[in-house]
Amino acid sequence: MKTIIDKIWDAHCVRPESDDAPAVLYVDLHLVHEVTTPQAFDELRARGLAVRRPERTLATLDHSTPTLPANPDGTLPYKDAATRNQVDTMLANCREFGITLHGFDSGQRGIVHVMGPELGATQPGMTIVCGDSHTATHGAFGALAFGIGTTEVGHVLATQCLLQRRPKTLAVTVNGTLPPEATAKDLILHIIGVLGMDGGTGHVIEYRGEAIRALSMEGRMTVCNMSIEAGARAGLIAPDEVTFAYLRGRPNAPQGADFDAAVACWKQLVSDPDARYDREVVIDAADVRPTVTWGTNPGQVIAVDQHVPAQRTAAAARSLSYMGFDGDAPLLGRKVDVVFVGSCTNGRIEDLRAVAGVLRGRKVASHVRMLVVPGSEAVKRQAEAEGIHTVILAAGAQWREPGCSMCLAMNGDEVGAGELCVSTSNRNFEGRQGKGARTVLASPATAAACAVAGVIADPRQYPPLVEEAA
Ligand SMILES: CC(C)[C@H](C(=O)O)[C@@H](O)C(=O)O
Ligand code: SF4
């Protein structure tokens, strides 16, 4: 009796682990971006090695790319020479090693964890790796997807295999139905609050239960994306009809009769009814409220209308002092300086629809700087086709080019020292969004409500406005 995690592991295990060596795991898809690959390609060059399977390697540009439009002379407004150099190095490496790069003008560039799924490159049952800690996003499709380090990126480029110790398994079962005001982001923040920021260490999480099944693919990606924020090595959701419907017709997915044959195989990718997990946690979806972080790690969460906890530990006191919040006091009403909507957690079309729903007919508070950054070119196109960008611009927010942007502030999109940013991204560490920047993680609906209110606000106070009949 096996879990889906065991099934995928066993199907890819080239050599099982022994006391003195990890297992050798075959990798179906290797995603690469400009930040964690330069030394790996250098290593290949130094050893005279080729990329073992370039057709299973897919590249993008996301972390260092500017989100402002091109300069009048056609050049891009890079933050500095280092970021431009990272992108140029990636372009040269992909050319030299024969790797498909979805770069500028491809129409398909995007944050690596947004682009893979929308191309249909991410598929159930695959092993997927990327030199990036949020690779678990791809687990939403029932894939075993790990973040790896730059040395391992080199190993995978050269061998298409990865050395890994077999992970422990953790079932997170979410029973019942989410209340209408709670989104997938609120759910995963709530889950991390329950598990703690290292509660998943050494484990791969399988998210399951009625409330998980009810999520769209976008919502499932949001949930799996943040598995690492609970310390887990990966997180996944068994594929079902929602998964298959999402994948059908995507360019890198199997086509026609091959797709139907693939679905027949993918349907086997479920945990057997009496499969045993190393650990199980049960969550009641009805308990989930619009949830935000109050501190400097993603496990420090409260429902938005709760009080920040009293300072009980030195770590909590340090978090509060960095954030400039008081213990045992409400977050609601705290002044907000910046709102960031985007990232591989919440930069997809449904997220932008939720933001437009709140902003339509309303204005961003005059002291708030709000950036809306689509997760990919495809998301941007879709949003513009739906008129979402018009709503965002009319509200006074900025509509940018796709990329990681202010999620980690590598490209020049930064929050100022001491400023408070409500962000739909996944990390609220000290300095994550800029030196001295303070981050409150939230759902797109909550972020948009805060932008309008100009303070930390409850999204339930900002329901979509119904247009009056003419
Ligand atoms: C730049 C990259 C290595 C990093 C990661 O691994 O996650 C980034 O994507 C992040 O979110 O901090
Ligand atoms: S959007 Fe943020 S979390 Fe996602 S890959 Fe980019 S920097 Fe990392």
UniProtKB/TrEMBL annotation:
InterPro entries: 3-IsopropMal_deHydase_lsu, Acnase/IPM_dHydase_lsu_aba_1/3, Acoase/IPM_deHydtase_lsu_aba, Aconitase_4Fe-4S_BS, Aconitase_4Fe-4S_dom, IPM_dehydratase_rel_enz, IPMI_cat. Pathway: Amino-acid biosynthesis; L-leucine biosynthesis; L-leucine from 3-methyl-2-oxobutanoate: step 2/4. SUPFAM superfamilies: Aconitase iron-sulfur domain. CDD domains: IPMI. Keywords: 4Fe-4S, Amino-acid biosynthesis, Branched-chain amino acid biosynthesis, Iron, Iron-sulfur, Leucine biosynthesis, Lyase, Metal-binding. Catalyzes the isomerization between 2-isopropylmalate and 3-isopropylmalate, via the formation of 2-isopropylmaleate. This is 3-isopropylmalate dehydratase large subunit. It comes from Denitratimonas tolerans. The lineage of its organism: Bacteria, Pseudomonadati, Pseudomonadota, Gammaproteobacteria, Lysobacterales.
